[in-house]
Amino acid sequence: MDLAPALLSGDRRALARAISAVEDQRPGHEAVLAAVASRRCGVPILGITGSPGAGKSTLVSAIVDELRKRERTVAVLAVDPSSPVSGGAVLGDRVRMLDHTDDVGVYVRSVASRGRVGGLAWTTASIVDLLDAAGFDCVIVETVGAGQSEVDIAGIADLTVVVTAPGAGDDVQTLKAGILEVADVLVVNKGDLPGADLARRDLEAMLSLSDGPEVPLLTTTATSGEGVAGLVDFIPSQAGGRAAIIRRTVAAVRATAEHLVREALADDAELTTLAERVVDGETSIDKAASRWVSRAIGEAGPTG
Hints:
CATH architecture of the largest domain: 3-Layer(aba) Sandwich
Order of helices and strands: HHHEHEHEHEEHEHEHHHH
Number of strands: 7
Largest sheet: 7 strands, parallel
Strand order of the largest sheet: 3-2-4-1-5-6-7
């Protein structure tokens, strides 16, 4: 099957195979990405991030319900923790979204983070390009849920939603130190639980001290759908077009470069030799590190 034409025509099997090819870097994946590049529409990309236990997956499911009520098709890309055995996605998010399995207007895919910090898999931006070209009205990207390090989503999403919940305690302080700065919308989920008002007041106090632009603060109860329509109202009907695609491409190039260099650095034979030279006083740590990185960059892949 020629994946690109089939994907562009709405074939979900072709889309699934194309995503797997990109995720696993199989032969031909670059050709698929090149073939769909000009067909990207710049559809709205919604990023959902926040600490574990905030109910992100349940909220995503509720957002999908609301989008379908508005007759908008939606793709969900859930970045799950990697299996320590296979390296694949744990698939927890797909299990929580089984209600949408039979809906032809919804596509749910899990990908493995494969140990990458930042809350996303290094292929996320490229996979979002495939979902964009496949013709969905909206794409939702849910990060792993590791907390304050999950800022990479801002480079991909047109609207970044940071989710917390009552009883988060220190997690609210974590938001202050990390992903609060990338939030376009803040959400206190599980608004029916005791402490929701306190969590909201804590966030309001934090926002009052911020020098950045005003950030909307919403309360939702994903299990009942309360407040979700107001959140969906913030999703733009149209994204930033070419500028958004360029921003996403920057994220893809950066993530790929980091991956290639990290793979090249995994060979520690040269590192051991350099460490011996440092111990023997023949060079400094800075010079050894510079040489090691320079070698890795040279081996990371072809240019041009």
